[in-house]
Automatic annotation (TrEMBL):
It is a multi-pass membrane protein. Residues 180-311 form the EamA domain. This is DMT family transporter. The chain crosses the membrane at residues 34-57, 98-117, 129-147, 154-172, 178-196, 208-226, 246-264, 271-290, 296-312. Keywords: Cell membrane, Membrane, Transmembrane, Transmembrane helix. SUPFAM superfamilies: Multidrug resistance efflux transporter EmrE. It is found in: Cell membrane.
Length: 314
């Protein structure tokens, strides 16, 4: 029995400039967890790079780090205050040591250290040294508490250390840069201690953000009583909204959730590896914004540190 003839279909070409029919689009593309995770990670990296750009812009505008901290912690503190109240029993059960490590390592003390360091060194060095040396300090702190097994990835850690040594050796005679580097490394050590404390406390990302933002805002209150933020009020409107968008909304609110989402969709290793690109983006942004072009030592140090970070995540 012969097969029935198939009906013919005439394809009519679309006129120039006409939009494709909605059936031609693939709506499942943005439902793919990997795609959504990649977009969340890209947003996080952009915010992290903008964090260092904002710190440097505040330093160049002679804005006190505490005034910039007000922008960083005020919106997040107000938004997360209900979380702090609802989970007050959870927070009250935390040991004081974990409280201090979490708030100091990612809250106001860390922000003041990083902001002051950015007054003495360019964006590329700060954005490389602070996040880039965190795996090294985490391993050293863990080794001090748990033993040498925490140093099992020593080749990657050695590569990170060589990048730091390159920067220090090249600029050892420059006092202002050396001061900035010392503050960046201190900030990285504080963040590494915060990382271990957060792991021990087992706080959810929203809980950690609430604790950090609200307590930091309380710590800022006495300073604001004696030092009104006159420099902040004198900023041009464009700079004020830039800092508010990057620090208050981006770092304080969006990146906390976007990075957690990226980890959930991509896994911790891929998210951490992608986050290592933040120094590169920050360095590229600093060129047109501030006219800061990295020298050979900064480029070599950045390459070694980022390569070590990526290697340590594998």
């Amino acid at each position: 029995m012969p097969a029935p003839a198939r009906p013919t279909t005439t394809l009519t070409p679309l006129p120039a400039g006409a939009a494709l029919p909605t059936q031609a689009l693939n709506p499942s593309l943005f439902a793919n967890p990997a795609v959504l995770g990649g977009l969340a990670l890209a947003l996080t990296v952009a915010i992290w790079a903008g964090f260092f750009i904002s710190l440097r812009a505040g330093a160049r505008a002679h804005l006190a780090p505490a005034e910039l901290a007000l922008i960083r912690f005020l919106p997040a503190g107000l938004v997360f205050a209900p979380v702090l109240w609802r989970r007050r029993e959870r927070f009250a059960a935390l040991p004081l040591r974990l409280w201090l490590s979490i708030v100091a390592g990612a809250g106001l003390p860390y922000f003041l250290v990083a902001g002051t360091g950015m007054r003495h060194a360019p964006v590329v060095d700060g954005s490389t040294l602070i996040p880039g040396t965190i795996p090294l300090f985490v391993a050293l702190l863990a080794a001090a508490a748990q033993g040498r097994q925490a140093l099992s990835r020593w080749p990657a850690l050695l590569m990170i250390g060589s990048g730091v040594a390159t920067l220090l050796a090249w600029h050892h005679g420059e006092g202002e840069l050396a001061q900035g580097y010392a503050l960046f490394l201190l900030g990285s050590l504080m963040w590494a201690n915060y990382t271990l404390a957060l792991r021990a406390a087992k706080l959810a990302p929203v809980e950690a953000a609430a604790l950090i933002s609200c307590v930091s805002l309380l710590l800022l209150a006495p300073w604001l009583i004696w030092h009104p933020p006159l420099g902040l009020l004198a900023l041009p409107a464009s700079q004020f909204w830039l800092h508010l968008g990057l620090q208050g909304l981006g770092v304080g609110l969006v990146s906390t959730l976007s990075y957690s989402y990226a980890i959930a969709r991509l896994g911790a290793q891929r998210a951490a590896t992608g986050g290592a690109l933040a120094p590169v983006l920050a360095a590229l942004l600093a060129m047109p914004v501030f006219g800061e072009f990295p020298d050979s030592a900064s480029v070599i140090g950045m390459v070694l540190i980022i390569a070590g970070v990526i290697w340590s995540q594998r």
